[in-house]
Design a protein that fits this description.
Layout (H helix, E strand, L loop, with lengths): L7 E7 L7 H14 L4 E7 L11 H4 L3 E2 L5 E2 L2 H8 L9 E3 H14 L9 H17 L4 E6 L9 H14 L4 E8 L2 E2 L4 E2 L2 H11 L7 E6 L5 H11 L6 E5 L7 H8 L1 H8 L10 H11 L4 E8 L9 H13 L3 E8 L8 H5 L4 E4 L8 H14 L3 E4 L1 H15 L4 E3 L8 E6 L14 E9 L4 H6 L3 E8 L1 E3 L4 H6 L3 E5 L6 E5 L6 E4 L14 H17 L1 H4 L10
Parallel strand pairs: 1-6, 1-7, 2-5, 2-6, 7-10, 10-11, 12-13, 12-14, 14-15, 15-23, 16-17
Antiparallel strand pairs: 3-4, 8-9, 17-20, 18-19, 18-21, 21-22, 22-23
Helix pairs in contact: 1-3, 1-9, 4-5, 5-6, 12-18, 14-15
Length: 553
């Protein structure tokens, strides 16, 4: 790597507006540097006062991404894992709540005895400590500052990263700023003023960006780049066009074409070879040349904000890539299905997914979607709450327990086929107390799950309080709904499936959290394959156009 073997730090900030894609930009840059042979990790610093996003509404914050070690983290960590080989952990996400909680505990213990505890240096020192800890063992750490420059809650984070260059030197610290360059139709041109003002705000905090990523709906020509460079005091070849693309997996390739990774290694004095981008080129080629198009319906509770299902959305895309297909995802509000015929809304689906969620809203709609998939023989995957809806539907319609329900939905149900886990009964705090992180599962021989995973012992990530009630397990299996995956002690049901159905499987864990574009999770590879088969069978006039498929390695 570099001559003096010091860890390098890249700080990514954003300006003008939120939701420009800092996490995606940071992940893509990480992918490029990893492709050059560097050991790369990332850290997301969130300015909100919550300790973690676990208690936030998905409609406000988007999904909660769970790591192997049980941390409930920002959804950007999902981007990091989907673009890099590095697995994230709780040290890859920190919040204002965590920082202040740690500092206050230290103060109460007397660690600062005699000192007045202040934002500078105590809060900023704790932030810098978290950055150093996240970077341990790696060549380079990319640190994303959440929010937008100018937000009052992010000021301590900006001060901490400003100090980092003084602590570690110019050759070891780089500042990347993501801004918006909007096209104004009335003027017929791209406008650079928002970027100029954003950089001015950042320099007012003592940080001069080294590289600008300019988000726009079209490429920036040389004239626009020169203007931005001149007014923002940045080298012209460090003004990088970050234009919209069809697939997010094109972003590393587009950044490489703009020379982003080359500018980074030059400025940080890193010695590497040329990046090996064959993997990314293969993924993009597959995305751009699908052999068939299939429709997947996602019946959820939080469909008004697609980021609530970000990892699921990408895992479905990975399944399509693995089967050389294009997928059209239809997000269906579960409450819509509580009235009328579910088939009218789900009739075009080649596969259905019932994702996780909490609370009673939309439950009956999800159950009706399960019944439609079972009776119409549509491939279906139930995830976490989705598995529980499968259990309730089969208990009611096949076993004959007409009032079967979950205690989460109906505490006094006479047949609680879903009940709270034993270890959760005494829990009175909401934050960080669910069954979280990776747990082992043993898969039964002769099952669909074993055929998909190709191994009998797996570990998957969880986030739940309720589980299948073992008192009803024999009745469910007698009705044909088999528990084909359990905890090693056979006490917790992890996977259930319905033999005889084309593809009917539910899991208590979240498989979407471990899927990557070059290594699709087995359940999504299998579900999308089943969707392709159903599409060919139910659309004979188009089936002749479906060429033989092969898995993408």
């Amino acid at each position: 790597m570099d001559r003096d073997n010091k860890i390098k730090f890249i700080f990514v900030s954003g300006g003008v507006v939120s939701s420009l894609g800092k996490g995606l930009a940071a992940a893509s840059l990480g992918a490029l540097l990893e492709a050059r042979g560097l050991r790369v990790t990332l850290l997301k610093m969130d300015p909100y006062i919550n300790v973690d996003p676990g208690t936030m509404s998905p409609l406000q914050h988007g999904e909660v991404f769970v790591t192997d070690d049980g941390a409930e983290t920002d959804l950007d960590l999902g981007h990091y894992e989907r673009f890099l080989e590095t697995r994230m952990s709780r040290r890859n996400n920190c919040t204002t709540g965590q920082i202040y909680d740690t500092v206050i505990q230290k103060e109460r213990r007397g660690d600062y005895l005699g000192a007045t505890v202040q934002v500078i240096p105590h809060i900023t020192d704790e932030i810098k400590k978290r950055i150093r800890e996240a970077a341990e063992g790696f060549d380079l750490a990319i640190v994303e500052v959440g929010g937008t420059v100018g937000d009052i809650e992010s000021l301590p984070f900006f001060e901490a990263i400003r100090e980092f260059r003084w602590d570690y030197g110019r050759d070891n610290v780089l500042y990347v700023h993501l801004t918006l360059v909007p096209f104004i139709p009335a003027a017929g041109e791209l406008k650079t003023k928002p970027t100029q003002h954003s950089v001015k705000e950042l320099t007012g905090l003592g940080i001069q960006p080294d590289i600008l990523l300019c988000r726009s709906d079209r490429p920036l020509d040389k004239k626009v780049k020169a203007k931005i460079a001149h007014f923002c005091n940045v080298e012209e070849n460090c003004v990088i066009s970050a234009r919209d693309v069809e697939s997010i997996y094109e972003v590393p390739l587009r950044f490489h074409e703009e020379g982003l990774d080359q500018r980074v290694v030059e400025k940080l004095n890193i010695w590497t070879g040329a990046p090996n981008l064959a993997k990314w080129k293969r993924i993009v080629k597959t995305v751009q040349n699908p052999k068939v198009t299939v429709n997947v319906a996602v019946v959820g509770k939080y469909v008004n904000l697609v980021d609530s299902y970000k990892s699921l959305h990408e895992a479905i895309a990975h399944g399509a890539i693995a089967n050389e297909a294009r997928v059209v995802i239809d997000y269906v509000d579960a409450e819509e299905l509580e009235k009328g015929n579910p088939g009218a809304r789900l009739g075009a689906a080649d596969a259905i997914i019932i994702p996780g969620g909490f609370g009673e809203r939309g439950i009956e709609g999800k159950i009706r979607a399960v019944r439609y998939a079972r009776e119409s023989r549509v491939p279906i995957l139930g995830i976490c709450l989705g598995l529980q809806m499968m259990v309730i539907e089969i208990a009611r319609d096949v076993v004959g327990l007409k009032k079967a329900n979950s205690r989460e939905v109906q505490e006094d149900t006479p047949d609680p086929v879903i009940h709270i886990m034993e270890g959760q009964k005494a829990v009175d705090r909401k934050g960080g107390t669910m069954r979280l992180g990776a747990y082992p599962c043993v898969i039964r021989s002769g099952s669909l799950a074993l055929a998909l995973y190709r191994r009998s012992r797996i570990a998957e990530r969880h986030r739940h309080r309720y589980e299948v009630n073992n008192a009803y397990r024999k009745a469910l299996e007698g009705a044909g709904f088999k528990a084909t995956g359990t905890s090693p002690d056979d006490q917790l049901v992890e996977i259930m499936e319905l033999p005889g159905h084309p593809w009917f499987l539910g899991c208590q864990f979240h498989p979407e959290l471990r899927s990557r574009p070059w290594d699709c999770h087995p359940l999504f590879r299998g579900l999308l394959r089943a969707a392709v088969v159903r599409h060919a069978e139910t659309a004979p006039e188009r089936s002749a156009k479906v060429r033989p498929l092969k898995a993408v390695s």
